Amino acid sequence: MSRIASVFRPGYKALIAYLTVGYPTLETTYEVASILANNGCDMIELGIPFSDPLADGATIQKASYQALQQGITPQVCLEAARKLRRKIAVPLVFMSYYNPILSFGLEAFCQASVKAGIDGLIIPDLPPEEGAELEATTRKLNLDLIYLLAPTSTEERISLVAEKSQGFIYLVSLTGVTGARQSLPPELEEFVRRVRQRAHQPLCIGFGVSNPEQARRAARIADGVIVGSRLIQLIEQDATFSSLKSFALSLRQALNLI
Amino acid sequence: MTVKDRQLPDSYGYFGQFGGKFVPETLMSALYELEQAYLEAQADLSFQQQFHQLCRDYIGRPTPLYLAQQLSAKIGGATILLKREDLAHTGAHKINNALGQGLLAKRMGKTRIIAETGAGQHGVAAATVCAMLNVECIIYMGEEDIQRQSSNVFRMKLLGAEVRPVSSGSRTLKDAINETIRDWVTNVHNTYYLLGSVVGPHPYPMIVRDFQSIIGQETKEQVMATYHHLPDCLVACIGGGSNAMGLFHPFFHDKSVKFIGVEAAGRGLKTNRHAASLVAGRTGVLHGTKAHLLQDRDGQILVTHSIAPGLDYPGVGPEHSYYKAIGRATYVAVTDAQALEGFRLLCDTEGIIPALEPAHAIYYAAELAAGLPQNQLIIINLSGRGDKDLDIVAKAIGMEL
C-alpha cells in the first residue's frame, strides 16, 4: 500500500494541507509543515510556485509570486521535500503546474521527487488526455498521479479520471479558482454522488474550504478535505503560527465528529 | 505534403508534437462543447452564409491587395504587395475572428462574452461584435497596455464593453489571458471565451485560424486574378500569430510560396527584452497549449518586451511551432528600432500609417526585397493601421504631438 493510500481508513476523514513552498520564507515552510503534521493534518501538498498560476485566486497568486522572488525553483522545492521527509512522516505531494515539470524533464523530475520522499503529484493544468507520457513514468516509479474532477465534468470524464487517478481523486468543489469562500455550492453533494457511482478511489474535496463547518460538510460525503488559501492567510496574519495551529486542530476536531 | 497535413490539428488538437489542451478540469467539458458547436457551425451552410455576408457588408471585405509601387521603387528590388487588413472595419484583421466567434457564441446561446487584449485591437473587435450582436462584453487588459493604448480603451468603452485592468505579472497580454481564463473557470456555464489569436487550448488555434484564413483565401484569388501566378513570398508579423496564419494557411500546399514570420526582437535578442518565442524560445506549455515559449531554465515564463503591444507575448500558436519544425516557414525577428524604420518607410512612400505590429513585417520585407529581382512578388500582411500607436511613435522618435 502506498503512503497515500494508508491515510484513507474506513470511518476516518483525512485532512490535507496546501503550502506554497518558500512563502514567505523556506524556514516558514519547514516550521508550518511540522506544525500541521503534528496537529491533525494527514498529508501535505507542497506547491511549487509558477509564474502564471491560472487556476489560482489572489491568495495563492501572491504567495507564488513572492516565493519566486525569493528564488524558489523546482530544485529548491525538491531540497525542501527531502528535508521535510526526515522531519515528518505524513505523505508529501507536489502541486505544480505542468511547465516547470516539463522543463525539468518528466522522468528526471519524477525520479528526483521519489528520491526526495514525495508520494504523489497534483497538476492542475494536466487533464488525463495529456497525462499519458507522465503517467508512464509515475506508474513505473510508484508515484501517485492524482487527477482532478470538477462540477462541470461529464459522466464520461468522471469515468476517465476514475480509470487513471492514483492515490485519490481531487474534487474541485466549485467552478472557480482557488481561494477561501464564505460558502460551498449547494450542488456539492450531488457532484460527489455522481463521482462516487463511478470511482473506487478515495475522494478529497478542495477549493474554497476555509472553516470547520465547511470541512465537516465536505467530509460527510467525501474521504478528505483539502485546505490551502486559508492557511496561507493565517501564515500572513500571525507569525507565531498559533492561530494556524488552532485552526488545524479545529478542522481535525470537526472531521473527527463525523 | 500529404493529405494528412490538410487535416491538422488531429482529433487531440495536435499539430505534430504541438498543441493539445492543458487546462484545468473545469474547462475540459467546455472545450469539447465548443469543438462540437464549431464543427456543426462549419457544416451549416446558413452559418457560413451569415459569416460571409457580414464579412462583406459589415467588415468591408474583401480588403484590397495593393501594389505598393512607390515602396517597391524606393527599394529597387522585388515587387511588394500589401494585403490591406488595415482597411477592415475597426482597423485590423482581428475583426474577422471576432465576428466568426461572436456568431458562434450567439449560436451556442451564451449570454456573456469575455476576451483578453494586448494592443487593444482584439478587444475593440470583440466589443464591436458584441455591440452588434447585443451580448454583454468584458475585456481583460494589462495595466501597462491600458496606459500605452488608451485610445483603444476609450473605443471599447464607447462600444459598451467593460474593460477590466489586470495588475498581475508583467501587466501585459500574458497576464490578461491568465485573468480571462480565471473568469472563464468561474463563469463557464454562461460565458463564451472569445480568444483573439491562434493560441490557447484546442480547438482555439483551429477556430481562429479558420476564421482568419479568409485573408489568405482572398489574397490567393486576388494575386491570381492580377498576376496569374502565385506570389514568391508571404511576410507577416507574429505575436500569437493569427494574421500570419490567416495569410499562410491557404497557401500551405503551394510549396513554391515561402512563408516568413517576423517576431519582435524588442531591444535585441541578446538583451532578454524581446518577444521572439519561435526564434529564441523552447517548447513549453502556457495557456493550454504546447508550443515555443520564452521561459527561464526552471520553466518560469519570462517577461517580454516589444514596442508593439500586439507582439508582446511569450508564447506563440502551436501551428507556427509545427511549421517551424517541418521547415514550412522561416521565422525571424526585428527590433523596436527597425520596426520604427519600417513604420516611417510606409508612411513616407505610400501615405499609409501602419500599426507597429506589421511595421516589423514591413521592415523585414523591405530588406528581403532589396536583394531580389523585380519579377519576384512579396506580399506583406498589413494587419492593422497605426492610429492606436501615434503616442508610442511620437515618444520613440521624439516628436511633439
List the helices and strands and how they pair.
The complex is a heterodimer of chains A (258) and B (401).
Chain A: E1 14-20, H1 26-38, E2 43-47, H2 58-69, H3 74-87, E3 92-95, H4 98-104, H5 106-116, E4 120-122, H6 132-141, E5 144-146, E6 148-149, H7 155-164, E7 169-172, H8 188-198, E8 203-206, H9 212-221, E9 224-227, H10 229-237, H11 242-256
Parallel strand pairs in A: 1-2, 1-9, 2-3, 3-4, 4-5, 6-7, 7-8, 8-9
Helix pairs in contact in A: 1-3, 3-5, 5-6, 9-11
Chain B: H1 3-6, E1 14-15, E2 18-19, H2 25-43, H3 45-59, E3 65-67, H4 69-75, E4 79-84, H5 94-107, E5 112-117, H6 121-133, E6 136-142, H7 143-148, H8 150-158, E7 162-166, H9 173-187, E8 191-193, H10 204-212, H11 214-227, E9 233-237, H12 242-248, E10 258-266, H13 277-280, E11 282-286, E12 289-293, H14 318-325, E13 329-335, H15 336-350, H16 356-370, E14 377-382, H17 390-397
Parallel strand pairs in B: 4-14, 5-6, 5-8, 6-7, 9-10, 9-14, 10-13
Antiparallel strand pairs in B: 1-2, 3-4, 11-12
Describe the structure.
The complex is a heterodimer of chains A (258) and B (401). Chain A is α/β, with parallel strands linked by helices and 258 residues long. Chain A has one domain: TIM Barrel, CATH 3.20.20.70. Chain A has eleven helices and nine strands. Chain A has helices spanning 26-38, 58-69, 74-87, 98-104, 106-116, 132-141, 155-164, 188-198, 212-221, 229-237, 242-256; strands spanning 14-20, 43-47, 92-95, 120-122, 144-146, 148-149, 169-172, 203-206, 224-227. In chain A, strands 5-4-3-2-1-9-8-7-6 form a nine-stranded parallel sheet. In chain A, strand 7 (169-172), helix 8 and strand 8 form a beta-alpha-beta unit. In chain A, helix 1 packs parallel to helix 3 and helix 3 (74-87) runs parallel beside helix 5. The two termini of chain A are 25 Å apart. The mean pLDDT of chain A is 97. By secondary structure, chain B is of the alpha/beta class. In chain B, the strands form four sheets. Chain B has a six-stranded mixed sheet, with helices on both faces. In chain B, strand 5 (112-117), helix 6 and strand 6 form a beta-alpha-beta unit. The longest helix of chain B is centred in the N-terminal third of the chain and has 19 residues, at 25-43. The N and C termini of chain B lie far apart (52 Å). At the A-B interface, helix 2, helix 4 and strand 6 of A face helix 2, helix 9 and strand 11 of B.
